[in-house]
Design goal:
Rossmann fold; Dna Ligase, domain 1; D-amino Acid Aminotransferase, Chain A, domain 1; 3 domains; 9-stranded antiparallel beta sheet; binds adenosine-5'-diphosphate
Length: about 375
Amino acid sequence: MPPPQLAVIGGGQLARMMQQAAVGLGIHLRLLAEAPDVSAAQVIVDHVVGDYTDLDTLRTVVAATPVVTFDHEHVPPEHLRTLEAEGHACRPGPDALLYAQDKSDMRSRLSGLGVPCPRSAVIASRADLEEFGLPAVVKTTRGGYDGKGVWVVRAMADADAAFDSGRGLLAEELVDFRRELSALVARSPSGQVVAYPVVESRQADGVCAEVIAPAPDLDPALDAQARAMAERIATELGVTGILAVELFETTDGRLLVNELAMRPHNTGHWTIDGAHTSQFENHLRAVLDLPLGPAGARSPWAVMVNILGGAVDDLDAQRAVALAAVPDVRVHLYGKAVKAGRKVGHVTAYGPDLDDALFRARHAAHLFTDGVTS
Ligand code: ADP
């Protein structure tokens, strides 16, 4: 087997889908997986099972690889600095990753760049929150995901769980938004940047449910602004790989940045089937400083619907049912056991007609989720 070119830390579905792109490019990935049977360990032959917070485990995994990338943003930054000092390129690096790890650092850095964000303040007490004003959204500054660690606070009692969490907290204005958008770019260490079409992401209970590419009826000026903002943030923060900028489109027609992710992102899964170069391929190309591929759409519309754990627990059995009902849909299952609300796969449909693509993607996803159509 040729030596590994890239180490990937974290064995979730994002690393699994990186492998799909790596196969085509002939790139040998080496994985650090949390357990032997996690999503990416099922498909990346060269994997080590261990704890990503343990420096010696990280050293073992990256020993023969010049470059390291990530399935998630939780590797301790001090470990990344050590790996860099020992000659490995971490992409993205610890200085950039900080802004995907800590929401208060992200808010102050972006505000310093003049990037529009919701009004926010770090809060240490109920008095701070009262002074900030309600309604508000209270978030843990670190460690939140899929809406966990986010509380909408209309009355002070709504903040009890937030204060009980014992975590650092940030208060934000409750943004009156028309919809949520996402702007993805890929950036290589030599500075090449490509921007994907801006998409609409629809959430249910804080979890991304479906994504429409491109965002329907998006004002061309906002579209250009969103792409330019994502390109500028990637460049100013020195991000390498994929940067996802989650945005609110406010009811009065402004864009505000919600948060940043520095890895392939759920709002970019449609690109596997719907774009000229998938976000996973461009992530690999970017972190290895290879030329990036074109990020335009291959079809007028693409719709991605997540398969969240529901009534169906045997996805293998349901595959035949879904494909029989909707042959023209691309299925991506992550090899994960079904648990309520857990992301276990996604489907993508594309074509010239948005309603038709929406119907096909939703129909197939419901067959995998609940075994019925809605
Ligand atoms: P996570 O890190 O869990 O993804 P986010 O900060 O993205 O947390 O928040 C999750 C969801 O909560 C967002 O997608 C959005 O729907 C809602 N939300 C977050 N911040 C605000 C805000 N300031 N105003 C209104 N809604 C918000």
